[in-house]
Amino acid sequence: MDNLFKVITFIFFMWMIQGVLTYFQIKHFNNVLHDMKDEGKVLLGQKKGKLSFGSIIILAIDEKNKIINAKEMKGITVFSRFKIRDEFINKHIEELKEDIPKIKDKVTRKALELALSKNILS
Fold first, then answer.
1. Is 27 part of any domain?
2. How confident is the model at residue 1 (pLDDT cuts 50, 70, 90)?
3. Range of the domain at 24
4. Tens digit of each residue's pLDDT (9 = 90 or more) over 43-78
5. CATH no. for residue 11?
6. Is 73 in contact with 55 (CB distance < 8 Å)?
7. Is residue 48 part of a domain?
8. Separation of first and last alpha carbons in the chain
9. If both were cysteines, with which of 30, 68, 84, 114 could 45 make a disulfide (CB 3.0 to 4.6 Å apart)?
10. CA 44, 45, 47: angle at the middle one, nearest 5?
C-alpha cells in the first residue's frame, strides 16, 4: 500500500508540474502574439501532430502584405519556444505562397499554408 501511495503522489506532482509549465508556455505564446500585433497585422497557422511534434507559425505583415516578422514554435513538449524564421521575412505573401511546396518539413508547410489561408488578425 505504501508503494501505491508513492506512485500516486509522484504522478500527481508530475501532473501539477506539467500544468505550471503549460501555463508559462501559454504566457510566452500570448506575449509573442501581442508583440507581433504591435508590429503589424498578424497571420497565425497551427498544425498539431498526432503522435509527433506540431508547429505554430505567426507572421506579422505590413500594409503592402510584406512579411516584416516571422516566428515558429515547433515541438512536442512544454519547453518549446518561438524562433525567428529569417527565410520568410521581407517576402510578399504571394511570393511565400509560391515557396510553400519547396519547404521540406511537412508540419511547417501545413502550418504556413493555414496561416496564409486565414483571415488577418489585427
1. yes
2. low
3. 2-117
4. 999 998 777 889 999 999 999 999 999 999 998 887
5. 3.90.1010
6. yes
7. yes
8. 56
9. 114
10. 155
